[in-house]
Amino acid sequence: MIRCYISGPITDDPDYLDRFRAATSHIAANYGVLPLNPAAPTWHKGATDTTWAGFMRRDIALLLKCQMLYLLTGWKASKGATLEFTIAKHLGMPVVMEGRNEKQDWEDALKSLGIETISEVR
Predict the structure, then answer these.
(1) What's the topology of domain 3-121?
(2) Where are the domains of the chain?
(3) Burial of 122 (0-12, 13-18, 19+ CB in 10 A)
(4) pTM, full prediction
């Protein structure tokens, strides 16, 4: 199954948990890929390094298990999300941006992974 990493602003966004949960549900319901949510409370459970760098190390490890990246609105203002975007682009991962031509971006991303239509992944 294709895994999609969700990236977006977390620091200074009091609604980040709701935004990441909504994106997780949206991706799973509409595109048939497995969304991986680094903001899920269980992802960092038991972590001993709770610095920004510690969170990013774990998040990047999760990103590397994915085939594509989904960027939430406002990602450019996030140091972590811009780092994740840079890694994904350099690794050749397709990127979908929330809202902006999203349906077409999904179709293009999936085609780049060898899937001709969204219905093929369901």
Answers:
(1) Rossmann fold (3.40.50)
(2) 3-121
(3) exposed
(4) 0.92
